[in-house]
Write a structure and sequence with these properties.
Elements lengths: L1 E8 L4 E8 L2 H12 L12 E6 L5 E5 H12 L9 H4 L5
Antiparallel strand pairs: 1-2, 1-3, 3-4
Helix pairs in contact: 1-2
Length: about 90
């Protein structure tokens, strides 16, 4: 686990939050799950989330749509592409 600085533009200001995660995308996803996607600027899917690792200073940028899809998979709202359809819809029965 590393510390990551997650930055994105909110509806009223630039938001910067430290998050502990295994990788850049997980850090961005966990912050936006906790904070809510409604706080994003105009809820644009092409808005970028910038993530910087504290230890290595390696930065990554992710389109909001990519982070949202990753969050849906983590929360179990969608399944991975290789999951059989019958397993994906077990909850509907």
């Amino acid at each position: 686990m590393n510390l990551y600085l997650v930055q994105y533009t909110g509806t009223d200001s630039m938001t910067q939050v430290w998050a502990e995660a295994d990788d850049h995308l997980d850090a961005a996803t966990s912050v936006l799950i906790d904070r809510g996607f409604d706080s994003m600027l105009h809820k644009q899917d092409d808005a970028l989330v910038i993530v910087v690792c504290r230890d290595s200073c390696i930065a990554g940028s992710y389109p909001m749509q990519h982070v949202r899809e990753h969050a849906d998979r983590i929360l179990g709202l969608t399944t991975l592409p290789d999951s059989p359809p019958d397993e994906a819809d077990w909850w509907r029965d």
